[in-house]
Amino acid sequence: MKDKYKLKLLAVLMVLLSIANVLWGSLDIPIKDVWQILCGNEIEGHPAWSIIVLQGRVPQMLTALLTGTALGTCGLLLQTAFRNPLAGPSILGIDSGANLGVAIVLLLLGGTASIGSLTIGGHLLVVVAAMVGALTIMALLMLLSRLLRSQVMLLITGVIISYVTGSVIQLLNYSATEQGVHSFVIWGMGNFASVGIERLPIFCTLSCIGLLLALLLIKPLDALLLGDRYAENLGIRIGRVRQMLLLVTGLLTATTTAFCGPISFIGLAVPHLARLTLGTSYHRMLMPATMLIGANLALACNLLSTLPRDGSIIPISVITPLIGAPVVLHVILKNKAS
Amino acid sequence: MIELHNLTVGYGTKAILSDINQVLKAGQLVCLLGANGVGKSTILRTLAGFQPPLWGEVLIDGRNLSSLTLAERSKAVSVVLTERVEVPYMKVVDLVGMGRSPYTGFFGKLSEEDKDIVSEAIEMVGISSLAERTIDTLSDGERQKALLAKALAQQTPIILLDEPTAFLDFHAKVSTLRLMLRLAHETNKTIFLSTHDVEMAIQLSDELWIVQEKNISTGTTASLTESGILERFLKGEGISFDDKELTLKIR
Q1: Is the pLDDT of residue A168 over 70?
Q2: For burial by CB atoms within 10 Å, which of A187, A195, B146, B162 has the most?
Q3: Which residues of chain B make contact with A281, given a CB cutoff of 8 A?
Q4: How many structural domains compose chain A?
C-alpha cells in the first residue's frame, strides 16, 4: 500500500511538472497570460504568445513526457532482458543504430528517398530509418545474447557497435553536403521541441503503442529475472517474449531517437531510480514507477534547458548525462560493494 | 511418478546415455550420482522438458512429457537449477511467489490463496523468519531453501534439482538433504536430484541412481551395496568403502 502511495505521489509530481513546463519557457510570458491563452483567449498586443504556448510549449511538454516515459521503459526492459543493471538503449548501442539510420537519410540521401515512384521525405523517412537501424542492432544483440552468456561481453559488444556506427557516421559526414551535416548536428543535440504540433499525433501514437505493448510484458519480465530456464519452467514462452522485447525496445528507442535526437542516460538511470524509490523487483510496480519517473526526469530536464531565459535553450543531451552519470556511478559502486 | 521408456538423452545426434528404462516413484527422494560429464545434467534437463529426448519417452503420471503444453508442464515439473539467482531488491516471499506464475492471471498478481500457499511453502522449508529479507542477504544454504520453497509453491508432483548441495557448507548440505527427504515423504512428491556429496546421498535417500560407464544402476543403498555396484563406483586411489557402516575411508 505504501508503494501505491508513492506511485500516486509521482503522478502528482508529473502533473505539476507538466504545468510548470507550460508556464515557463525560454521566453518570459506572464503566468496569468499563459492561463488566458490556455483558456482560448488572445493576449492584446502579443499575438505570437498564443503560438508559442499552444504550438510550442504544449507539444514540447507532451514530447518530453512521452520521451522520458519511453526511454525509462526501454531501459527497464533491457536491464531485465539481459539481466544486467548497466543495460540501456544508449549503452547497448541501440540508439547508435537509430543514429546511423538517421545519418544515412540526412547525410547520404539528403533527406529524401525514392522507392520506385514512392518518394518519402522529411520526418517520416527519419523515423523509418531510425527504426530500421534500432531494430537491426536489437536483433543483432538478441542473437549474440544467446551466444555470449557473459554480460561483460554483451556490454563490450554494445560499445563496439557504438564505435563502428560512429565511424560510419564520420565517414558519411565527409561526403555529405554542408546543409546535411548541419541538420544532423542539430538533430544530434537532442531537442524536445522538434516534434511540434503537426507531428505530435504520429509521435504520440507510436510511443503509446510501444508503452502499451510494454505493459503486456509485465508478467514474463518478472519470470525472466530468474533467468531463461526458470522462466520457461514457470510456463513463459521465452522465444515469443524475446521477440516482443525486440519489437518494443526497437520501436520506443527508434521513435524517441528519430524525433528528439539521441538522449542518453535517461534509459539507463530511470529504472534504478524506480528501484531505489520502491525497493521492489516486481515489474507490476516497477514499470509504472519507471514510466512516471522517466516522465518527471524528462520534464525537469526540459525545464532546465530553458534556463538561459534569452530565447535560446541548452541542448537536452548536455543536461541528461549530468543527471544520469551519478546514478550510474552509484550502481557500479553498490555492485562492487556487495 | 515418472516413467522412462527406452529413453536416450543427448544433444543433436550425439547420445550421451541410451536406452534408459527406469521409474521414479512418488514420495521418494532419489539421488543421481556420477562423475562430471557422464550426463547427469542432461538427464535432468530432458526430464524438465528443456531439451527433447533423442529417443523414447518420459511419462509423468501417465502423460507423455513431449505432448504437454508449456503451461501443463509448468504444473507438472518444477526445477531448482545450478545458475545463481541474483535479483536486487527481490525478497524471499517474492521469489517463492514466482512459483505461483503458472496459476496467476495476466499481470501475475497473487491472490490471497496464492499468498497462503507461498507462506506455507516458506514454512515447510523452515525459513519463515527470513520471508521479508532480500535474497542477496541470504547465505547459500538459505537461498537454496528459498528456491526449494519456490518449487513447492509451484505445486508440482515432481521436483528436479541440479546439484542443490554444491557450494553449501557441511551443515547446510546435511540440513538441505534431510529437509528434502522429509518433504518427499510428507508431501508424496517425487524429488530427484543430482549431487557429488556421495557419502550423504547414500545415507539420506530412498533410492540411488548411479551413472557409470554409460550405464545407470538403480536401487536402495543396501541393494547397491550388496550387488557391489556402489563399491565399484566409490573405489578409487586412497578411497575404501566400508559396506557395513556405509562410510568412506580415505587414506
Answers
A1: yes
A2: B146
A3: 87-90, 94
A4: 1
